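Reminder to self: tokens first, then the designed residues, so the page reads top to bottom the way the pipeline ran.
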């Protein structure tokens, strides 16, 4: 979620952040990303600069640099060929995070993380879409974009505005008031070929952001299912990803209800909360671990108490290290011969087989994407998949033997992968990641893999 706060607008920005002063940026080449980067790049260090092309839009780019006059400050620039550019003055330590937050479709951030992609306004990113590996994009209902042309009226006077210099910029100064006078000064200083004022986005208006719809900490906490004091503690400690407020009035933080609801949804969907649904209520154990504990407890009780030949060991004369070691060894043997109560090796074998086939399919797709038409010697297998096959070999070698044969056979029949390629893939993967002693591994694979004569 975007939490960074800019300090000021650059004079040549196309999209002023409301409430912030305007600072002269004439000493920064905001139209040339490479030149922006070069300002901050010095062998002696202490400053930094970078620029990158936008991955999704031709001609779009983003850049930042430490200010050459005030090295505690930096400039961040986001350029879009259709929607113009944003130029902001930020703290130097925030420049790189700003750069990262601008990767993607987010052109503008307003009101506590609401963002605009050039067409649609979205609520702050909070609910993680795990399969899509990105945040769920949630459009704002009935959103209206307010431009500079909408805000500049007869009550805005350029003479009442002020353009600041970066050298004497005061980080603790109160926000300019009335801000529309400063906006009018900015508009009067724009070049003829600049983005039209009715395309210069200033803020967002929406029913959910109306003053009478915003909520304070008590109601925010209630929606999140926690006490107001807990919420305030989270905010003070910057914990639990509490979203930034949409407004602060007289020192009081206010949020929109949909933002609060998204925050509560993400809290409820978190891995910790999902795991809590499976808690047994017994020593912080999940249901599965509690069942395993009960299973082993019954087994150990049967060994230690219900067998007369073992029960007598509790007599004082039998309490020797060797006697206890014998009991411990017998209990360990019982667990080792009953690993299926922990994980069924038939289920694991099927899972490993499908995982290897998926790895082979990914390897073939990569070859096709890169135009590699030459013969393949082997496909790389990711370490977690190899580890599971290695576990199966070490604990259930017969099951592993059959699984390897099924992997090679399925790859040959379903994907036309020669069996020697599959065999070499398995051999190479285990050679890199197996925990088996080398000779034992080689002896097993010599028998499990098909002979080279085939």
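Designed residues (454 positions):
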């Amino acid at each position: 979620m975007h939490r960074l706060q800019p300090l000021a607008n650059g004079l040549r920005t196309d999209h002023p952040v409301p409430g912030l002063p305007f600072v002269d940026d004439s000493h920064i080449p905001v139209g040339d990303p490479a030149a922006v980067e070069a300002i901050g790049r010095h062998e002696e260090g202490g400053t930094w600069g970078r620029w990158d092309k936008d991955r999704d839009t031709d001609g779009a780019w983003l850049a930042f640099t430490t200010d050459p006059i005030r090295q505690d400050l930096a400039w961040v620039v986001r350029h879009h060929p259709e929607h113009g550019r944003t130029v902001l003055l930020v703290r130097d330590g925030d420049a790189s995070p700003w750069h990262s937050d601008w990767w993607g479709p987010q052109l503008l951030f307003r009101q506590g993380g609401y963002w605009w992609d050039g067409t649609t306004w979205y609520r702050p990113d909070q609910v993680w879409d795990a399969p899509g590996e990105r945040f769920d994009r949630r459009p704002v209902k009935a959103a209206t974009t307010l431009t500079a042309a909408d805000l500049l009226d007869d009550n805005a006077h350029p003479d009442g505005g002020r353009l600041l210099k970066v050298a004497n910029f005061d980080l603790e100064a109160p926000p300019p008031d009335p801000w529309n006078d400063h906006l009018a000064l900015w508009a009067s200083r724009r070049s003829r070929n600049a983005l039209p004022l009715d395309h210069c986005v200033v803020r967002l208006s929406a029913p959910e952001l109306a003053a009478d719809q915003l909520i304070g900490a008590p109601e925010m906490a209630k929606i999140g299912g926690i006490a107001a004091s807990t919420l305030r503690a989270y905010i003070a400690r910057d914990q639990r990803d509490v979203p930034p407020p949409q407004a602060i009035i007289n020192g009081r933080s206010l949020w929109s209800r949909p933002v609060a609801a998204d925050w509560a949804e993400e809290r409820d969907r978190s891995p910790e909360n999902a795991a809590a649904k499976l808690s047994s209520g017994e020593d912080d154990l999940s249901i599965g671990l509690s069942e395993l504990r009960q299973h082993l407890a019954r087994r150990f009780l049967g060994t230690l108490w219900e067998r007369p030949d073992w029960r007598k060991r509790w007599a004082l004369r039998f309490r020797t290290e060797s006697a206890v070691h014998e009991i411990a060894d017998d209990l360990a043997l019982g667990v080792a011969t009953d690993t299926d109560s922990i994980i069924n090796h038939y289920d694991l074998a099927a899972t490993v087989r499908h995982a290897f086939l998926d790895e082979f399919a990914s390897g073939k797709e990569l070859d096709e994407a890169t135009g590699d038409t030459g013969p393949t010697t082997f496909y790389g297998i990711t370490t977690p998949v190899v580890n599971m096959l290695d576990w199966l070999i070490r604990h259930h070698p017969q099951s592993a033997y059959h699984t390897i044969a099924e992997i090679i056979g399925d790859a040959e029949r379903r994907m036309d992968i020669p069996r020697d390629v599959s065999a070499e893939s398995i051999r190479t993967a285990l050679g890199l990641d197996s925990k088996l002693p080398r000779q034992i591994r080689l002896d097993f694979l010599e028998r499990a893999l098909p002979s080279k004569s085939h």
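The two ends are 56 Å apart (CA to CA).
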